[in-house]
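Reminder to self: tokens first, then the designed residues, so the page reads top to bottom the way the pipeline ran.
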């Protein structure tokens, strides 16, 4: 492979000059050498290429753009269609009965979205097919790839991640060129792992179809050479029940995207175990967004083929944000543009009917994109246009996602050394912050305006608007608190302990009774109860006021808890730590995620989610405790 050898040599020469600086920085608390500033302004959504006219070729290429992936005779995988389950048959019948026969707009709008020159081949993309790839067909596709004879050094392994709420298998495919497919072999190779997810929301089918294509090309096609530098795990359908029912949530109606901190569903727990065990450096969520969401409010149809975003939550390491922006967002934008595809920063309508503005993504640490980021990964979301269009423009939607995934995989392969250096530095810095500084409990986007391009639903002409779009890239803290050394949990908080361990946190069990200097939480009594009103914290806001403000600023998107976040005050004292209680130290890499779960006065905390039974069951350690812990946990 002469090209790969030449590339490796160039990379090695380039890194000799700066490798020593990076290694030194990764081993200390000294900041990494400054990076070139990104082209976009701080606090504003990164810009994308200007939309082109409908006459622009969908097959335009540039030398730096990844080649599109399609069916080739050498990489073809034929899958025998399998009859859908009864659940899927009923859902398809209901969809057919209610489906409108035509697009909700005319040819002038449709002309902007021609099919790509490359046609993709999966069971759900077959000509004249009326339904998407079924759960059974998806399973057979992955099983055949895993069972195929080794393709050179490439190895494939089917991952059985568990069962959904309705008993459907949750499946993934591991692709690697390590000596074996076990986790120890992957770690020994020194190569990073990439996790590709799709269809966390069941009514976003293009992601699953796209990742089936990507899995095939990694196993035996155009993407296979990248496995010399990275491992890839593909989970094409994280919510099989929702996919079968044609609904966004799980079988019980839970939004899987918002369940990555509390882990109430088996689907979210399966993904948490996967991330905990394989520690991916990049997590990419292939999604879709509705094309008609702003038609009522702004009389416009979505123009962009893709909406992109990365982690936007408090306490996320700045260097991972830079890596996401410069090494992923910008190359993906260029790759899409080279294919004649348009993109912009992610947006969705504001929740209030009277609000004509848009939201630029959740800033809460319970959303999947943000949770994966707080696990010290680069976490990306790519949403193709058309989740509300049935099968319309399906080839283009798949092409959009395949192009973006292709670019992200190539960036990881090219930047694997730099990414590992950045992550090593971030892990050290996060561990070193225990007992020091402040953590942000609640944050909200900064008010801003954003240029938005829509299409007139009648003429197809572009409508360029300036709308209110609070920036999720520039957060304003609503509530801060000194960072503790750790958290003590009572034995009655075992459900919280279970979830923390699923996330990958270290939780220690107290083996001998002892004491620790701690801050306990006491509820603030309201003036209506003949007590003093809640006192503002040092930032001028009570916890309850901060939580309410954050919920309002986040366009009415509260946490999923059933207990309103309390207003609390802290009391310092020496508390007993009895046998069987727990201690969660913050000198570990998941410290920001642990604090998000255990500070009780937020709408997403484990107290609000009823995983911590009462305020007396959690306390903040003001100093590293001298306790004896059970080694068996």
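Designed residues (633 positions):
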């Amino acid at each position: 492979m002469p090209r790969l050898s030449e590339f490796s040599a160039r990379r090695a020469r380039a890194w000799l000059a700066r490798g020593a600086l990076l290694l030194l920085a990764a081993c200390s608390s000294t900041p990494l050498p400054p990076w070139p500033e990104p082209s976009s302004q701080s606090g504003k959504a990164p810009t994308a290429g200007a939309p082109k006219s409908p006459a622009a070729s969908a097959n335009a290429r540039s030398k730096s753009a990844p080649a599109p992936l399609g069916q080739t005779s050498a990489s073809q995988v034929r899958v025998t269609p399998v009859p859908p389950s009864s659940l899927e048959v009923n859902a398809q019948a209901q969809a057919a009965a209610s489906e409108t026969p035509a697009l909700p707009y005319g040819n002038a709008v449709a002309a902007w979205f021609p099919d790509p020159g490359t046609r993709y081949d999966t069971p759900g993309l077959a000509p004249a097919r009326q339904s998407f790839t079924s759960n059974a067909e998806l399973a057979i596709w992955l099983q055949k790839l895993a069972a195929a004879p080794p393709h050179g050094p490439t190895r494939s392994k089917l991952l059985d991640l568990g069962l959904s709420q309705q008993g459907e298998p949750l499946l993934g495919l591991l692709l690697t060129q390590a000596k074996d497919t076990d986790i120890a072999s992957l770690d020994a190779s020194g190569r990073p792992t990439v996790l590709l997810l799709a269809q966390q929301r069941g009514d976003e089918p293009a992601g699953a179809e796209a990742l089936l294509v990507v899995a095939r090309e990694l196993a035996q096609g155009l993407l296979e050479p990248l496995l010399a530098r990275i491992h890839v795990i593909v989970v094409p359908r994280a919510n099989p029940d929702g996919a079968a029912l044609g609904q966004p949530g799980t079988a019980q109606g839970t939004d899987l995207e918002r369940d990555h901190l509390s882990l109430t569903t088996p689907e979210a727990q399966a993904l948490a175990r996967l991330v905990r065990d394989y520690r991916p450096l990049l997590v990419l969520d292939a999604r879709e967004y509705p094309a008609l969401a702003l038609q009522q409010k702004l009389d416009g149809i979505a123009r962009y083929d893709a909406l992109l975003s990365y982690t936007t939550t408090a306490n996320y390491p700045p260097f991972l944000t830079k890596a996401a922006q410069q090494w992923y967002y910008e190359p993906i934008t260029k790759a899409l543009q080279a294919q004649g595809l348009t993109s912009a920063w992610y947006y969705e309508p504001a929740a209030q009917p009277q609000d004509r503005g848009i939201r630029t993504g959740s800033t809460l640490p319970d959303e999947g994109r943000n949770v994966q980021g707080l696990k010290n990964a680069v976490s990306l979301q790519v949403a193709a246009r058309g989740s509300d269009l049935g099968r319309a423009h399906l080839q283009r939607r798949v092409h959009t996602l395949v192009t973006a995934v292709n670019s992200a995989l190539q960036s990881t392969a090219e930047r694997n050394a730099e990414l590992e250096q950045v992550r090593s530095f971030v892990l050290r810095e996060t561990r070193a912050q225990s007992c020091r500084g402040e953590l942000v409990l609640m944050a909200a986007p900064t008010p801003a305006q954003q240029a938005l391009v829509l299409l007139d639903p009648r003429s197809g002409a572009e409508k360029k608007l300036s709308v209110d779009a609070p920036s999720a890239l520039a957060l304003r803290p609503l509530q801060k608190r000194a960072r503790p050394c750790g958290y003590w949990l009572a034995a009655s908080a075992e459900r919280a302990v279970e979830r923390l361990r699923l996330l990958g946190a270290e939780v220690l069990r107290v083996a001998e009774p002892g004491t620790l200097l701690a801050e306990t939480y006491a509820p603030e009594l309201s003036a209506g109860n003949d007590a003093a009103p809640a006192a503002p914290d040092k930032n001028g806001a009570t916890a309850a006021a901060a939580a309410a403000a954050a919920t309002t600023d986040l366009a009415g998107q509260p946490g999923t808890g059933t207990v309103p976040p309390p207003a609390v005050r802290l009391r310092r004292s020496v508390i007993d730590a009895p046998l069987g209680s727990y201690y969660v130290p913050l000198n570990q890499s998941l410290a920001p995620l642990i604090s998000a779960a255990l500070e009780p006065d937020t709408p997403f905390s484990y107290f609000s989610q009823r995983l911590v039974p009462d305020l007396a069951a959690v306390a903040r350690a003001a100093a590293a405790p001298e306790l004896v812990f059970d080694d068996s946990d």
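Residues 18-62+77-91+103-433 form a domain with the Aminopeptidase fold (CATH 3.40.630.10).
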